[in-house]
Amino acid sequence: MSGDATTQHARGGPRPSRGTRGTPQPRPGIPLSSGGSVWGDSSRAEEALALASTGRPRNVILFVGDGLGEDEITIARNYLRGADGRLVLDRFLFTGTVTNYSVVPGDPTRHNYVTDSAAAATAWATGVKTYNGAIGVDAFGAPVPTLVELAGQRGMATGLVTTEELCDPTPAAMAAHVADRSGRGPDTMERCRAQAAENGGPGSIVEQLVRTRPDVLLGGGGQYFRQTVRAGEFQGRTVLDQAAAAGYRLVTTAAGLAAADAGGPLLGLFGDGALARAWVGPKARTDRGPAAVCRVNPDLPADQPTLARMTARALDILDERAEGRGFLLQVEAGLIDTASHDGDPCGMISEVAAFDEALAVGLQWAEEHGETLVLVTADHGHSAQIVPVDVESPGATTMLLAHDGEPMLINYATNLPGEILVHTGAQVRVAAHGPSAAAVLGLGDQTDLFRLITGMWEEKDAHAEV
Known about the structure:
Number of helices: 13
Enzyme class: hydrolase
Largest sheet: 10 strands, mixed
Family: Belongs to the alkaline phosphatase family.
Structural class: alpha/beta
Strand content: 15-25%
Strand order of the largest sheet: 7-8-6-5-11-1-12-16-2-17
Order of helices and strands: HEHEEEHHEHHEHHEHEEEHEHHEEEEEEH
Radius of gyration: 22 Å
Number of strands: 17
Region (Disordered): 1-40
EC number: 3.1.3.1
GO molecular function: alkaline phosphatase activity
CATH superfamily: Alkaline Phosphatase, subunit A
CATH architecture: 3-Layer(aba) Sandwich
């Protein structure tokens, strides 16, 4: 890895020469791209169409980039591969976009044009629009069935994988129901009193995750699982105790994950909070610094599994536990969002690289096993923009050297300098590969992902009855 900068380029200073190679290479094994455009490749188009028409899938893998808007994709592509390079994400032939607005509490006819992760995840997990902060409930606060719950009722295996906390909105909305996303553990239920176990409710997000019992739970958030249950059968004991009683085996390291088998449900907790960002570098600031490159996070835990390794292990375990009935797996790259909130482009880019690696694992698994639909989307866009290098921005900026050695100025202006940066309301990408992938074309809404998946299940059931 290179150091923090390869040049002292700043406004008015010398530009870095073409061909400069200061960009760090991803960790070994990350297949970022096969390169080149897919346009005009009729053989690939025919192959994809043939695959898309091979009936209804038995398995569904849903990849979610939290905060992965088109700006974030472009920034990562430029840095990792160059403007003429391609990510694995770019190789999908069936693509479209989805709208992602939320609604007003108590009035789903009124729109909120900038969603948060909770309302967005609830939209595709339940098919229902809700208000910002809501997890698995409608605009009136009533719980609605989720994809993981519905899949479990069908006898399918289910899994949730994330680099964020397992009680973060994207995994939580698949298997829990609380009025506010802050109700992560028994000690944080102030805004979710009706759901608190001591008030006769179903408990916090982590308590509900364990009760819903996905076959695989991998991510961070260990601090919430160590909190004490306040009522019911496990009163006075921790949520980890509750998980053990539900049959979960706990792993906390990459080695433990690699050694885990499919003998029972698996709970992987690889940090008290979110997992660590793989790369570090200059954060956005109002006084523009020199063009820089990213470097490996010196505090990256050696025993932290990559998103790709978590994905690969989850797929193998789910396939074995499904016993032919099929599975539903959601994989989230959650640190795109948190890095973007912080104006940290290197953290964001490294998470897109990790997401692309995991996506390659999922696609390869689908190709080898068949009958698997791979879906890719995001919950919302975020705060980064590529702007001309000589612009006088009213916001904070960071200058990075892209893959081709050219400076790339990244602007952050979705809030005042020094404040946390916020989401944007633009539609986001959706892509698909495999059986039924041809349904993903043009403009849809996040709720259409729920309808797509459940519609396939209904058609599969109807065909089986004939």
